[in-house]
Write a structure and sequence with these properties.
The chain is globular and about 45 Å long. The mean pLDDT is 92. The strands form two sheets. It has a six-stranded antiparallel β-barrel with strand order 1-2-5-4-3-6. It has a six-stranded antiparallel β-barrel with strand order 7-8-11-10-9-12. It is built from three helices and twelve strands, in the order E-E-E-E-E-H-E-E-E-E-E-E-H-E-H. The chain has 200 residues and is mainly beta.
Length: 200
């Protein structure tokens, strides 16, 4: 489990096409400290497994399903990525419950800068819109954010200078894809209510 609090802005150092999958090598001095084979690290909100670890770099295999359902397929050498290790038991939950299972992708539609923050508008797939509510939580590229406005096919988030400086959202421009993970609690509630109706 993750919290959506990005630990560092890493970098893709190599991409190897394996036919039906890809192997990424990524640099991240913070998240690789003490990393071992089999550990999990979230990369732009996608939970990946450490295959190899050397120095401040690690490699991870990404299967075709993940490449198709997330924006990881668009990464190239030099791409910056948000990195986070799983939360430790007993640690503070600074963001919200994030599984690292991407529900879909959106596109940055618009950026509105102001003096001390920036409003970013992101497209929202139709099948995810029912899970997104004003002042609710959403994960964008692995970042736990609060929804400012929830439209039928978009949402907006307000970004503070720290988020802009330390995550990929400070770099994303209109037209760029982002990974989205909705609040898992909303999905469980929907399923439970549907099952409740079916038993009556």
């Amino acid at each position: 489990m993750f919290t959506g609090i990005v630990e560092e802005l890493g970098e893709v150092t190599a991409v190897e096409n394996l036919g039906d999958s890809s192997r990424f090598r990524l640099r991240g001095p913070v998240v690789t400290e003490g990393a071992r084979h089999g550990d999990s690290i979230a990369v732009n909100g996608v939970c990946l497994t450490v295959v190899e670890h050397e120095g401040d770099e690690f490699t991870a295999d990404v299967m075709a399903e993940t490449l198709e359902r997330s924006s990881l397929g668009a990464l190239t050498v030099g791409s910056r990525v948000n990195l986070e290790r799983p939360t430790a038991v007993g640690a503070r939950l600074g963001g919200h419950i994030v599984q690292g299972h991407v529900d879909g992708t959106g596109t940055v539609l618009e950026r509105k800068p102001s003096e001390n923050w920036e409003i970013v508008k992101v497209s929202l797939p139709e099948d995810l819109s029912r899970y997104v509510v004003e002042k609710g939580s959403i994960t964008v590229d692995g970042i736990s954010l609060t929804v400012v406005e929830a439209g039928p096919d978009y949402f907006t988030v307000s970004l503070i200078p720290t988020t802009l400086a330390l995550t990929t959202l400070g770099l994303k421009q209109p037209g760029d894809p982002v990974n989205l993970e909705v609040d898992v609690v909303a999905k469980y509630v929907e399923r439970l209510l549907a099952n409740q109706g079916a038993t009556r």
